[in-house]
Amino acid sequence: MKFLADHCVSKKTTDFLKSLGHDITTLKELGLEELEDADVLQLAIKRDELLLTEDRGFENILEYPPHSHQGVIVLNVRTRSRKGLHHVLSQFLSTMNRDQLRQSLVVLDEKIARVRR
Question: In the list 35, 50, 59, 98, which could disulfide-bond 71, CB 3.0-4.6 Å?
């Protein structure tokens, strides 16, 4: 899958997803680390990529309704170790395809992935 990684996403996580064969572009690579949240989401829409973020503000469906974007995955990081989070993320992505994630908000932590459409 193709992802646009927000500036707050850990390099460990982007490297992990790349190791699984996913195509990830970071805001840093694009020189756009300072974009406002709404502009980050618009860039993901324009590029037809899932937005990967750790910014819990994207969970606000009133501000970012799922039907208005190409899909957002919010990583809810609760511990310093990302092992559990990466396990849940890889398991979740192995069961989904790109079309299933369009117009969806996914909130994922070390235990579960919740999908909202």
Answer: 50
